[in-house]
Write a structure and sequence with these properties.
Length: 208
């Protein structure tokens, strides 16, 4: 993503296409400000940092550390901008970052009945969904290895459906809701057949 100040600046930087896929935040400041036009490497919302190569008439700079900067003409930045300056220059770019998905696990005491601890999570899940401008939710049901594979496939689907219904009754609105059943596959805790394992009796909820 790129951000621009009101004035346009001469100069160009060649940036690798994968920079955007890594969630890097790139921007250009106005020519009249100090420092001059520059590129800054900021971490993704999850804290990871990629790499950007800035190449121009005056050289080439490799940015691979959070906060590193380079001039658009390829020169190394003499005086790195302060965090306050970066926040000011790239405010609109930073604000436009997509929010990361949030994941929840809820567990079941028996059948499709949530444990008390998992019921207590429902308000937090609803609040997270309501805080987003658009909401896509994935709900995946799981079981332990007690009972047959076919039975567990249906039970896991019932658990996922029960969670979605509970959220809707309490006011959930979403752009899309996907419900899946993994049955006794994809166990959180690996066990042999016919083993009761509370941590496998779960539903995974992902909010995007």
């Amino acid at each position: 993503m790129t951000g621009r100040a009101p004035e346009r600046c001469a100069g160009a930087a060649r940036l690798p296409w994968f920079a955007l896929l890594l969630g890097l935040m790139l921007g250009i400041t106005g020519c009249s400000s100090t420092p001059k036009s520059y590129v800054v490497l900021l971490p993704s919302p999850d804290g990871s940092v990629g790499k950007v190569i800035v190449s121009g008439a005056q050289g080439e700079q490799v940015l691979d550390q959070a906060g590193q900067t380079a001039a658009l003409d390829g020169r190394a930045a003499r005086t790195p901008p302060s965090q306050a300056q970066i926040d000011s220059d790239f405010a609109s770019t930073i604000a436009a970052r997509p929010r990361l998905p949030v994941h929840y696990l809820v567990y079941f005491s028996t059948g499709t009945t949530l444990t008390a601890e998992s019921m207590a999570l429902i308000p937090e899940i609803l609040a997270e969904a309501r805080s987003r401008a658009s909401v896509d939710i994935s709900v995946i049901g799981h079981t332990d290895t007690v009972q047959t594979a076919d039975y567990n496939e249906q039970l896991a689907l019932g658990r996922a459906s029960a969670v979605v219904e509970l959220l809707k009754v309490r006011g959930l609105t979403a752009d899309s809701v996907a419900i899946e059943s993994h049955g006794e596959h994809n166990l959180l805790i690996a066990t042999p057949d016919n083993v009761y394992e509370p941590r496998n009796r779960r539903v995974e909820i992902s909010i995007r």
